[in-house]
Amino acid sequence: MSEFGDAARNGLSPAGLEAVLREVGAARYHNRHPFHHQMMSGALTKAQMQAWALNRYCYQSVIPRKDAMIIARSDDPEFRAEWRKRVEDHDGSDGWNGGIARWLKLATGLGLDADAVKSEKLALPATRFAVGAYLSFCTNRTLLEAVASSLTELFSPVIIGERVPAMLAKYDYVTADILAYFDKRPTQASRDSDFALAYVMNHADNPERQQAVIDALVFKCDVLWAMLDALAHAYGEKGNIPPGAFDPEAA
């Protein structure tokens, strides 16, 4: 059981629930991960940056799919109208002029082949398992839990605010144009997290539901953390790249 496993045992006020959710982010969001700290310090090689971008594409590409599953599960037209903005943000108007396309631009700007990135065949097995677990969670758990799992967006502006300036300062091959994906994300994430947090506050109205939303956020933080764990294991000093995954020396 995590440190938050019985946080709602006695019931929480809305303010108390929000405080616990923010504590989850402070303790478990992936801006605390050593791989992120290496990125911020300029310690990653270009190959490690490429591996990060290629594997993260798997996560980016599943976001509109998991959001479509959330939309399909709601019988509230107002909820669906608000939530579909997330799909539009990532897919754009034609599938390739939104956030996914901008992430692909980041990956190719780092020297990766676009078709190889889009195929996701070179991604780490652990990445695919983590992303698949997130899609499955949003498909099979309650709508409230699925919404709560998106609350990592409460902390997204923080990591972007750390990541972008550091990447521009520490890596001479990274440009503002390559990082265009991040231009809109703080505003989008704040809009989306405000809506999701209000939904959670309104619907997590007993200890059981409150604990479910806390656990959902812990789970999502674990997904993001596991993805960086996999990168650190495969592309760290010992070089534990699994068969079939992106190999910088073979590229």
From TrEMBL:
Known pathway: Cofactor biosynthesis; pyrroloquinoline quinone biosynthesis
HAMAP family: PQQ_syn_PqqC
SUPFAM superfamilies: Heme oxygenase-like
GO BP, one annotated term: pyrroloquinoline quinone biosynthetic process
Pfam families given in the database record: TENA_THI-4
Record bears the keyword Oxidoreductase: yes
InterPro entries (alphabetical): Haem_Oase-like_multi-hlx, PqqC, PqqC-like, Thiaminase-2/PQQC
Highest taxon of the lineage: Bacteria
UniProt GO MF annotations: pyrroloquinoline-quinone synthase activity
Function: Ring cyclization and eight-electron oxidation of 3a-(2-amino-2-carboxyethyl)-4,5-dioxo-4,5,6,7,8,9-hexahydroquinoline-7,9-dicarboxylic-acid to PQQ.
EC number in record: 1.3.3.11
Gene name of the encoded protein: pqqC
Family to which the UniProt record says this protein belongs: Belongs to the PqqC family.
Source organism: Phyllobacterium zundukense
NCBIfam families: PQQ_syn_pqqC
Protein name as annotated: Pyrroloquinoline-quinone synthase
Domain Thiaminase-2/PQQC: 22-229
Enzyme class name: oxidoreductase
UniProtKB keywords: Oxidoreductase, PQQ biosynthesis
